[in-house]
């Protein structure tokens, strides 16, 4: 087996997925023994974003990645089969242009790709030098020739050629949802599995009612489809860029029953408990009839204050990129809530990484 980054091994995929299912089942056995919904990934071309170092050796340059155990030795990456077909189509074309144009090549340090299922692409070129008008003209020619959006970055510089975003279209249960995805903002890396995550979340929410609180809403990936299942939604997010994207995406999808609040989950939890703070008062929480909270936290999971916040809801819908912190949070909630459903989402085939979903409901009495 080659150890070159980004390779795929379809013959091994089912066995690896079975291992992940068994690991998740064993880990959560103390808190859940029911069925686990499993959502597999395509076995190739599933990753919609990627970044590579650009390594220069004499007159030749190439895309490179590094083994953490040998961080000084670049591994050439001529193609990237786990990456989207768009990434793989663009890689050789971009490298050919870099070799042909010294303005594009000189002190180019890194290349980042952001692509969509509809073949849109945003490419960011990162440099260790100041970018000038000569570079900008070369970049414009490159963007036009390849049909891409392009950004040049260097210290204290960000030059946008075209747009600084792509628009993704995800289809869930036959319904299309559109999302503006901005450079350097968080997006789900595996778009086809993301569609399945949305499908599962909607399925869990269908029997529920009332209003929804969402924490860590990002650019509204879950907010928008879930808004159809609830009367009103209050969604919070700390990143300014993500809040702006989320508000744009609400309009893009014609959603009118969602309020986006710029606030961290931790600050919101404190404000919820104390009722203090300008923003908390602006949200007029007493106008909502909350029944459900949806969370998609970072790898660290929910902090203690947020655990106590979600405990106050009848239903907790939880998407996790780290099953270990998900388990810890569930164990902290066991006195009041029980797990009714779990799912495994294989966002990252050929890796140990697992993403999980859980629906928790308040215990009787």
TrEMBL record:
CDD domains: AdoMet_MTases (cd02440)
Enzyme Commission identifier(s): 2.1.1.35
Reactions catalysed, as given in the entry: uridine(54) in tRNA + S-adenosyl-L-methionine = 5-methyluridine(54) in tRNA + S-adenosyl-L-homocysteine + H(+); uridine(341) in tmRNA + S-adenosyl-L-methionine = 5-methyluridine(341) in tmRNA + S-adenosyl-L-homocysteine + H(+)
Chain residues that bind S-adenosyl-L-methionine: 188, 216, 237, 296
The keyword tRNA processing is assigned to this record: yes
InterPro entries, per the entry: MeTrfase_TrmA_AS, SAM-dependent_MTases_sf, TrmA_MeTrfase, U5_MeTrfase_fam
A Pfam short name: tRNA_U5-meth_tr
Catalytic residue positions: 321, 321 (nucleophile), 355 (proton acceptor)
Gene Ontology biological process: methylation
GO molecular function: tRNA (uracil(54)-C5)-methyltransferase activity, S-adenosyl methionine-dependent
Keyword terms of this UniProt record: Methyltransferase, S-adenosyl-L-methionine, Transferase, tRNA processing
Chain's role: Dual-specificity methyltransferase that catalyzes the formation of 5-methyluridine at position 54 (m5U54) in all tRNAs, and that of position 341 (m5U341) in tmRNA (transfer-mRNA).
UniProt record similarity statement: Belongs to the class I-like SAM-binding methyltransferase superfamily. RNA M5U methyltransferase family. TrmA subfamily.
Protein name: tRNA/tmRNA (uracil-C(5))-methyltransferase
Organism expressing this protein natively: Saccharospirillum mangrovi
Gene: trmA
